[in-house]
Amino acid sequence: MRTVLRKLGFYVLTAWVAISLNFLIPRIMPGDPAEHLINQFHGKLNPAAIQALRVLFGQPDASLWSQYLSYWHSILTGDFGISYAYYPADVGTVLGQSMFWTLGLITACTVLGFVIGTGLGILAGWRRGSWLDSLIPATTFLSSIPYFWFAIIIVLVFAITLNWFPLSGGYSVDTTIGFSGDFVASVLYYAVLPAATIVITSVGGWLIGMRNMMVTTLSEDYVRLAEAKGLSRRRIMYSYAARNAMLPSLSGFAMSLGFVIGGSIVTEVVFNYPGLGTTLFKAAQAADYPLMSAIFLLITVMVLIANLIADVVYVFLDPRTREG
């Protein structure tokens, strides 16, 4: 428990530093968040309108400390201001609408790719030299292809040439949004190609990494001791070999979950999927500083939470990390 509390304190401190940097960096840049919107009017705004925009989208006249306190108040209350790109919607509403799509597709497919790749890697390492080893060259080749290029190829073949799946979007525009059978079926139908892109391009890395770690772990003394004691092969494979071989993959999986929003940008843009990746892309195009700041904050928090969970799981999986 002492180890877990110490790690929790470290991540709380890291979160404070990261959030403070997220506040400070945009404010030390030249100009202010309202500058981009004002420039779009090419000097046709009168001074009163310019001041009104500055008040609406920021507080350039307030002290840095006052802005810092207001920023923390916004984080604790979930009020991140007005979005430029989706004006007059507020940032919280935009995040709430797009987060559902990213968590439902990108996160689920990342977990699915990890489970499939790790499971195949365990079997390939346990039965090295079998037909499972023949999967490694194919999956490694697919994982080495840039996933945005692979997404374009999938769209070209299955959406344009064969016309089996829709070209882009998250659901049919003719379907009413809600928890109905038609809407769920439409969402799943539109998610086939993006999901296939993520899973196929991610399985290879997990497979070869887990397979190599299994081969290394099987030569350890504790595995040989378990075999000498006459334990079942299934128990040796999962409780002794796979449990220890999975530790390096677990750290990589935590990082992949943390960066799921940033990594989803290209995939969602190719398929025009209405998730956080597409939202961040549009926010960058429109110089939507409040929305970008909120998404960067979300990425920071997700990375820290994912790594904290991985460290806690590490403590329970590997007794060597615990304090006496």
Q: Could you tell me the radius of gyration in angstroms?
A: 24 Å
How many structural domains can be distinguished in the coordinates? 2
As for the CATH topology of the largest domain, it is: MetI-like fold
- CATH homology group of the largest domain: MetI-like
Order of helices and strands: HHHHHHHHHHHHH
By DSSP, the count of extended strands is 0
- What's the main sheet like? none
pLDDT < 50 stretches: none
End-to-end Cα distance, whole Å, is 11 Å
Strand content: under 5%
Map the helices and strands.
Elements: H1 2-28, H2 35-39, H3 47-57, H4 64-77, H5 91-126, H6 135-144, H7 147-161, H8 181-217, H9 221-228, H10 233-258, H11 260-271, H12 276-285, H13 289-317
Helix pairs in contact: 1-13, 5-8, 5-10, 5-13, 6-8, 7-8, 7-11, 8-10, 9-10, 10-13, 11-12, 12-13
